[in-house]
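Risk register update: the risk of archive-format incompatibility is retired. Evidence:
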Amino acid sequence: MNGREKSDSSIVPVKSPNKSGAAARDAEGVEGRELAKGNLDKGDMRRTQGRIKRMPNALDRIREVAQRDGKQRFTALMHHVYEVERLRTAYLSLRKEAAAGVDGVTWQQYGQDLEANLQDLSGRLARGGYRARPVRRVQIPKADGGQRPLGVPTVVA
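Archived output:
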């Protein structure tokens, strides 16, 4: 980085040839230059808080591998599921006004003691003690007079 021109970004020529038309195509114009070797744009890394790019999370990397190679087998992914931060993100992405499931717990009720609930859920997932509750099935009327099944899952059991 301290070397001459090591941190230069791409340089676009500002000066154009004086000639116009066909003569300009024949005349030698000013050439631009790409990034210096070693200073290439590095993937999805977030270098500072003000930059747009971010570090890819584990699930992004897993998704990329799965898209590249559809026959790839993943054998040890559970530790990504029971991460407390990932569980918090999943909880916050739920619809707040959704109906309660078979356990009768709403989004707001579960969130009253969120940290303790997430720690408990993470522990149960890690030791294999979590068992999902069944989805509450409700029949709702369709426009043509028929019925359509609707599943109402629990926030967590």
